[in-house]
């Protein structure tokens, strides 16, 4: 008779364990590369998504986005529209979906890092990639790589 209450206690304990919250799905992290590929288009690539997750980007300035599938290794690549004529920087939201769970949104800026294709840890260009304004350029905002002649 002692086994029946013990079995009931075990069943209640197991059911309570199923009710415990799970850890939230993390965002895929900022992309490793954001490279200007053509006028109004940036190729974005990263390698920190969950394997086979859907990775989504949405540009707040252009109101457009892209959905990509991460590889078995968590690598994703996609092309997103940008509007650099109207906005100096475009704010992009990045998140992932795995099964029916969505991660929180990570926000980053484009075109940071486009000169060398690499974003640093805070979403800005590496110190060596800071553009400098051209002296006597034809148009305001003409840029060259730092140290370029």
Secondary-structure blueprint:
Elements: H1 3-18, E1 33-38, E2 41-46, E3 54-59, E4 64-69, E5 76-81, E6 90-98, E7 101-102, E8 106-110, E9 132-133, E10 143-144
Antiparallel strand pairs: 1-2, 2-5, 3-4, 3-6, 6-7, 6-8, 9-10
Write the CATH homologous superfamily of one domain.
Immunoglobulins
Largest sheet: 5 strands, antiparallel
Average of pLDDT? 74
Q: What is the CATH topology assignment of one domain?
A: Immunoglobulin-like
Rounded to the nearest angstrom, the distance between the terminal CA atoms is: 90 Å
Helix content: 10-25%
Q: Please tally the helical runs, counting DSSP H or I stretches of 4 or more residues.
A: 1
Instruction: Note the beta-strand portion.
Output: 25-35%
The CATH architecture classification of one domain is Sandwich
**What would you report as the Rg, rounded to the nearest angstrom?**
23 Å
Helix/strand class: mainly beta
Per CATH, the class of one domain reads Mainly Beta
The number of strands is 10
Low-confidence stretches: 113-149
Give helix and strand order, one letter per element, not per position. Answer: HEEEEEEEEEE
Rough shape? elongated
Key features of this structure:
disordered C terminus, single chain, mainly beta, 10 strands, Immunoglobulin-like, elongated, 5-stranded antiparallel β-sheet, 11% helix, 149 residues
Describe the structure.
The chain is mainly β and 149 residues long. It has a domain at 33-131: Sandwich (Immunoglobulin-like), CATH 2.60.40.10. It has one helix spanning 3-18; strands spanning 33-38, 41-46, 54-59, 64-69, 76-81, 90-98, 101-102, 106-110, 132-133, 143-144. Strands 3, 4, 6, 7 and 8 form a 5-stranded antiparallel β-sheet that branches. A 3-stranded antiparallel β-sheet has the order 1-2-5, with no helix packed on it. The chain has a two-stranded antiparallel ribbon with strand order 9-10.
């Amino acid at each position: 008779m002692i086994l029946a209450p013990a079995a009931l206690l075990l069943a209640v304990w197991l059911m309570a364990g199923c009710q415990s919250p799970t850890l939230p799905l993390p965002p895929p992290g900022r992309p490793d590369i954001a490279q200007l590929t053509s006028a109004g288009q940036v190729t974005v690539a990263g390698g920190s998504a969950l394997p086979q997750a859907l990775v989504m980007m949405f540009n707040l300035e252009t109101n457009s986005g892209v959905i990509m599938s991460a590889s078995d290794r968590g690598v994703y690549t996609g092309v997103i529209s940008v509007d650099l004529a109207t906005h100096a920087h475009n704010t992009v939201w990045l998140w992932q979906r795995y099964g029916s769970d969505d991660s929180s949104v990570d926000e980053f800026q484009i075109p940071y890092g486009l000169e060398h294709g690499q974003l640093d840890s805070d979403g800005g260009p590496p110190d060596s990639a800071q553009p400098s304004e051209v002296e006597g350029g034809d148009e305001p905002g003409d840029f060259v790589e730092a140290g370029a002649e």
